Amino acid sequence: MARAAVSGRLTWRVASLAASSDLTGSARSLVFDVPGWPGHLPGQHVDVRLTAEDGYSVQRSYSISSASDGSRVELAIQRVADGEVSPYLCDVLSAGDQIELRGPVGGWFVWRDSDTAPVTLVAGGSGIAPLMAMIRTRAALGSRVPFRLIYSVRTPADVMFADELRVRAREDAGLDVRLVYTRQAPEGSPEPPGRLGVATLNTYAWPAEFTPNCFVCGPTGFVETVSDILVALGHDPRRVRTERFG
């Protein structure tokens, strides 16, 4: 596992955009070269700082989606139409352009490969970003810890990392992926669209008696609902870790 930076010693680093690609119609993957990157734990995030020529600067935090190795950092950015930062990152930033990154940040919402308990991942929309780092790190390490991902999206077109998740689920018996569509289900789907609720979590998450680690990430309301359901289903609150936005 790559070494994570010690909190309190974080410094700003210049990061250059190495590659970018569309994840959905409103989200992009941005991969940065970050010289001197100390490594990170899956689930951590970075602060991004943009500074204009007149000195005005703005900061935002984004979860890391890449596995815990190498000197590159991948961010999955959901474009916010009236946002101050995400439209620039998604629509203006091009290969070779530079921004500032500070991190990695966070020590609670992380998966460590030394913990052999089964893992339930629950994502809402772009909340899949830090969970992808966990999935990718598990694969890179050859870990046999069983993962179950429950991913809630509005429509099939909103699934971030769709092709990668499809391939990983097909080729890795230790990774189960369940997609939940809230607005429009794909043609031929046996289940109608609907919000993620008790029945889905009771059916597809690891049972509480298995003492799994649960990681929940998404909009605030989504995270609160899911974590409350997991606790009501008997999960140890100390094993339900949450990351929220919005």
Architecture overview:
The longest helix is centred in the middle third of the chain and has 14 residues, at 128-141. The protein folds into two domains: 12-105, Beta Barrel (Elongation Factor Tu (Ef-tu), domain 3), CATH 2.40.30; 119-245, Nucleotide-binding domain of ferredoxin-NADP reductase (FNR) module (Rossmann fold, 3-Layer(aba) Sandwich). The chain has helices at 86-91, 128-141, 162-171, 198-204, 220-232; strands at residues 12-24, 27-33, 45-51, 57-63, 72-78, 98-105, 119-124, 147-153, 175-181, 213-219, 240-245. The protein starts with 11 loop residues before the first strand and ends with a strand. The protein contains five helices and eleven strands. The model is unreliable at 1-8 (pLDDT under 50). By secondary structure, it is α/β, with parallel strands linked by helices. A six-stranded antiparallel sheet has the order 4-3-6-1-2-5. InterPro entries: Cbr1-like_FAD-bd_dom (IPR008333), FAD-bd_FR_type (IPR017927), Flavoprot_Pyr_Nucl_cyt_Rdtase (IPR001709), FNR_nucleotide-bd (IPR039261), MRET (IPR050415), OxRdtase_FAD/NAD-bd (IPR001433), Riboflavin_synthase-like_b-brl (IPR017938). Its cofactor is FAD. Keywords: 2Fe-2S, Iron, Iron-sulfur, Metal-binding.
